[in-house]
Known about the structure:
Elements lengths: L3 H5 L1 H16 L8 E3 L24 H18 L16 H6 L3 E2 L7 E2 L24 H13 L13 H9 L1 H10 L1 H26 L21 E4 L8 H7 L1 H10 L3 E6 L6 H5 L4 E7 L4 H11 L4 E5 L6 H8 L8 E5 L5 E4 L2 E4 L4 H18 L2
Parallel strand pairs: 1-8, 4-5, 5-6, 6-7, 7-8
Antiparallel strand pairs: 2-3, 9-10
Helix pairs in contact: 5-8, 6-7, 6-8, 7-8, 8-10, 13-14
Amino acid sequence: MFRVMTEHGGERFARATALVEQAYQHVEMARPPIVIQDANYSLAGEDPAGIPDDYFAEGGFAAMLERQARRIDAHLKRFDDEYVPFLFPWYGTGVVPSALGCEIVFPPKQEPAVAGPIVTRPEEISRLVPPDPTRDGLMPRVLRCIDYMRANSDAPVSFTDCQGPLNIALNVVGLERLSIWMYEEPSAVHELMDFCTSVLIDWVQVQKNHAGQPRDAGAFPHFVILPRGRGGVWISDDDSTVLSPHLYREFVVPYNSRVFQAFGGGTLHYCGSATHQLENFLATDGLVGVNNWCMGDFEAVFRAQTAFAGRIVFAVDDVAPVDIEGYFAELIPGLSRRGTIVTIFPSATTATVTGRTVALQRDPYAVGEACWRAITAELDRRT
Length: 383
């Protein structure tokens, strides 16, 4: 039994949650909440040598729980940040597409991935059938993993990776095809987005029921607890960076709004720059926070935090950079003390340079500690 909440003390986690709540209140803070994301659940950026062979197998629930528990324990012994522990039934980004009929491939020591789309003509959209979570694709495995984690730990259990309606649609249809249909078959695209939105809402709710999580709580967007009353869901929407504002407003904003409204609010993640979507994010009903893996683009970070001021919490995120001290010496002075969260992922195999990531073998524990020192030093310098 993994007893992280009782063994490490509820006072620490209550204090962390309260600090995150202050960010969501948009009040002036002495320092923003900080989370070092080294208790990683996914495999991206991890050393393959440390990944169990049965991590994604039907009977691999114990391996997944053990790996996450080990990382959580190591984190809590090294950092006094605002991380609140949780367990994550991680099966890649294609769980919903798998239940709709997409083939999933399992490369050794890598993330499961969608092999390709299944819809090639607009008239096929009406033939899509809502999945049965107890039978279709990877959904039953996720539910059994949630049940296992809940039975063998006192840590809260999250729902699995939550790609937004747009990403689900792109997996089902394909990027090029869906983009063309937005111009040539807009009614078909709306039909597909409506279908994907309903499926996603139902799927998240089923997982919450298994995890014992209320509708409007139990979300941990990119390792940061979403306090009760701020919503119960997060979605990834990386393709927001490539769509025009007009297309995103018509084909994505209404459907993301439905997801957030279904769970009393939530947050959205994207990698890269989406400054052309800032007004669309502000127009998304129920959106209370944004997590951005900014890839060192601080100009985009500062534009976003200005646009979101007083309305949407901005969590700036990245793979840990090559120049750790220089990165935070440039970032921290420009960050607001209202509505801001600072997070960083100390990868073992990749690092950020401006605008991209590069392959770089490093000790993630040493990198995480270096990031912690650099962040706190810059914040102390300006307190």
